Amino acid sequence: MTSPSPARRGAYRWVVVGNGESRRVRSFRAAAVAAGLPAPRVVEWLDVLREGGHRFADDELVRLDSPGEHAEVDRILRGVTDPTRVEGTARWYAGFGAAVISLHGGCRLDDPAELAVLFDKRLCHARLAAAGVPVPASPTSCPVAPVRDWHDLRARMRATGLARAFVKIAHGSSASGVLALETHPAGGVRATTSVETTLSGALHNSLRVRRYRTESEIAAIVDRLAPDGLHIEQWVPKSSLQGRSCDLRILVVAGRATHMVARRSAVPITNLHLGGERGDPAAVRAAAGEHWPAALELAERAAACFPRTLCVGVDLLPTAHWREFVVAEVNAFGDLLPRITGLPGSPAVGMDTYAAQIAAAARWYGAVRTAFAPEDEHVPA
């Protein structure tokens, strides 16, 4: 009989593929050391891209982290020299997908096929809807033809009865390129977005949310974004928390909802770097009341659509005065939640998001290997 590999015996060594100087990787390594483990080995995304891949040992537990916040990595993936530029996400998606596939061996905590879905909002929306997870109505869930331009976008909104919608770059993140779009029967239109345009027509992300009120301005932005792929979602009215509209980022680790951040804002886009504020977790639970367990269960249902990925961040929209919830997005790298510890009653009480993943990873990986036959695994040979 062949003896089990070190990985199957549970003698793992941690490896992180990321940008070593990023706060994400530094925080994860610190959490591993705090747990009494050796500092994880770091494989730089820049080296993966330049060398065409990397091979891991059989006993290495491999965690992928975001390739963001690194100018040269961004230049290679998106083909832009200014990191504030919005364009280039379709090229980023293709390059990042190829980089993930170029990683071989090891015990993988992020499945390449699932990452390809998570980083395409159209595919992700379609997978959630097919699983019965409540999501905003959308005319762009796959398979449909890509949105060509502003006129095509307006036609699809009219055909599906959407007067108000969120328009998102298919492969975007951190609200990059997002437009909260409002149209009126009399012909008026307004877009709320962090996109800033230049005289040349180039699009840049700014830290200030602004409003565009003329169709020509909004059409120019949409036409510029369309080649990268667009996703259209119904604008779901969000419940309020302490006088401001609110949504939730719920982290799910190994199938369990473990951490939560509430984001409050006076504008439709709630991201914290765009002026959103953290809401009081106790106030969230009080507002949801008896419906709070259903919110956590919904986040876990959404995460279950990606069973071969250890950790995802699920964005929930509370509606109907906190009585109902819908899933806006599922994020592969949604765990950067500083100073947040585990939810009461979760397996991560007292742990930050990285400690929770470290505690759960080995048992989770063993269960995944048992659940999925080797010939079905989406792990490169």
SSE inventory with pairings:
Blueprint: H1 6-9, E1 13-18, H2 23-34, E2 41-44, H3 45-51, E3 54-64, H4 71-78, H5 89-101, E4 103-108, H6 112-118, H7 121-130, H8 150-159, E5 164-169, E6 179-183, E7 189-197, E8 203-212, H9 215-225, E9 230-234, E10 240-241, E11 244-253, E12 256-265, E13 277-279, H10 281-288, H11 292-303, E14 311-319, E15 324-331, H12 353-371
Parallel strand pairs: 1-2, 1-3, 3-4
Antiparallel strand pairs: 5-6, 5-9, 6-7, 7-8, 10-11, 11-12, 11-14, 12-13, 14-15
Helix pairs in contact: 4-5
- Please give the radius of gyration in angstroms: 21 Å
- The proportion of strand residues reads 25-35%
Major sheet summary line: 6 strands, antiparallel
What is the helix tally?
12
Shape: globular
The helix/strand class is alpha+beta
The oligomeric status of these chains comes to: single chain
Number of strands: 15
Average predicted confidence as pLDDT: 93
Percentage of residues assigned to helices: 25-40%
Taking pLDDT < 50 over at least 5 consecutive residues as the criterion, the unreliable ranges are: 1-10, 375-381
